Amino acid sequence: MAQEPKPSRTSVVRVLGLTLAIATLVWTFRDTEPERVAELLGRVGGAGVLILLPQVLSLLVESFGWRLAFQGMGRRFPLFGLFRARLATEALAQTLPMGVVFCESMKPVLLARTCGAELPTSLAGMAARKWLLVGSQSFYVGGFAILAWSVLSDISASVLGASCLPRALLCAGGLLLAIASVSYVLLAHGRVATRLHGLLSRVPSVWLAARLAPLEARFSRTDGELGAFFATAFRSPLPFLAFLTAWLLEALDTFLILTLLGVHLPWTTVGALEVSASFLRNVVFMVPAGLGIQDFSYLAFLRALHVPDALNVAAAFLLLKRSKEMFWALCGYAVLALELQAERLPKLHSYENVARADSRG
Fold this sequence. Notes:
Blueprint: H1 9-28, H2 34-44, H3 53-72, H4 79-95, H5 99-115, H6 119-147, H7 149-160, H8 165-189, H9 192-201, H10 206-212, H11 216-233, H12 238-260, H13 267-283, H14 293-304, H15 310-360
Helix pairs in contact: 1-14, 2-15, 3-4, 3-11, 3-12, 4-5, 4-15, 5-6, 6-8, 6-11, 6-12, 6-13, 7-14, 8-11, 9-11, 12-13, 12-15, 13-14, 14-15
């Protein structure tokens, strides 16, 4: 008799993470007043459409920075093609457990579909994007930690039960900067792809060796394109500034939603709030969009900042924020479906042509 397949550890982690997230979300907002939340949402009215803008602008600006990074490698790709790839992968990252990990495997496929990028170029571009993302986030996190230091010190005890919040954020920014620095040394001068090919080639497997041998030039090409990018990375700061602007637009997103709900906080305070929440979301990446954990952090911050009716305001805030994320996730899935469908159409046509030729024969 065939044995039933055992669930993998990854699947168990995903299910446990999602279950914990939903339980945390329900527990956090168990005392919410639906009528009051509806009143707050009604106050937003038609202006709520503005909430859609910061995220799409963030993805566009980041795609522009990514396009400049590819240009540094001598590759020119259409901005709209890169934007479509980012929109689709962002949908995967936001909605799937451990989606941040899964969407990376889809990027080469989508870059090939939307931009015609070959695999070595896609891998080099993905590595360059990660470096720009981490480096710009270090300034984003560290900058708001410094700008809102006094506010963070005042609310730290309420949020964490200790006075270490501003120092923790500053250390997080420093850690990100250290990761970006080490990544620069490895990617710019370490010939990582070539070394990886050599390491894999030493594995005592005839099957693996036969498949790696034709790919040596591709691994070397990835290193070459990364070297070309990093050769100009510090002479042309525009890609870095584009990624930093994309991060700032995330803070603008939170600022806009709170303002529409009648909560008026200083820009630096809102930036520190969003930095903390987004950093926490990246830490708990096994939960889609930091569900539950990130929501709890928003509520904790609003209460610590003495926002009136913080629980209902947080519930209305999160309904608007999650609805906006869901809208763009649906758009991303639509792009993903169209791109994968377009990939299948040529194959279907080729099968039809073969069938017609056979019938004529």
